[in-house]
Amino acid sequence: MYAIKLPTYQLPLVREVGFMTDEKGVLNHPHRKLDNINVFIFVVKGKIEVIEDDNFYELSAGSYLFLRKNITHWGAGSYLPGTSWYYIHFYDPPTVIVPLEDYHNFQQTSLIAEETYNQQLKLPKKGSVTQPDFYTLQLDKLIEQDKSQDEIRPLLLSQMTYALFINLYKHSKESKVHPRTQRIIAQLTKICRQASKKLSGKEISQAMDMNYAYVSTIFRKETGKSITQFQNEILIEKAMDLFKTEVNNVSEVSEKLGFSNAFYFSRVFKKVTGMAPSVYLNQNYQVTHKNEAGT
Question: The domain containing residue 217 runs over which residues?
Fold first, then answer.
């Protein structure tokens, strides 16, 4: 399996997009090895069979496949009559010197941390979608843009392709999560968001009527973070709302949110946002109130 990995800070650089139909079923996928070019195929109708380095893939309507650069691939047989498909050829981003972690961003604050964009999307090798019309609409817009004479056409094509790939990534990830796991995470996040303070493991266990270690393991596996981290993010988001909407200093906000002291609150705030609360206050708009005398 030759996975396609895209850094979150880099667009897939499009070389060519297209749509093809084989009405008579006389074509098959070309035997080739594309230097530095990845291939994306999305089948609208019919069937396509492709072999990549002895791995066999069968594509039917609503399914897609990524073929990796510098790996030989070829057709296993002729297409079915009436087969139609879209394709995108795109260059790999520049070589990443430092290995990147797979993407995780179950983040609950409105501030997006810089390291969020220093990860990679591991795109599904092969998959199928439940709403093919949604993806064909995106691909039709790509084809339309490709025909334009706009001087920034390459950038627009790459941007639109990235949006398409992100949707496929999101759909693939969501489809792999077991319904029971989804229910556990949804229940946990609801409990944490509605709480007025940080909950202990015992309190979470009682509220969910489940073993805390089991819930914690599932949550970390699916989100990439601990329940404590998640609760801290919720509290810091509340802190930022207080800073924006009320005249509060750090000690007041810390006390309102149930932190043991302002020093600990400041430490958690900086860990979540990457800056001290005093710096955040200086960088953002604040609400001021006039006194009753109108001064």
Answer: 180-222
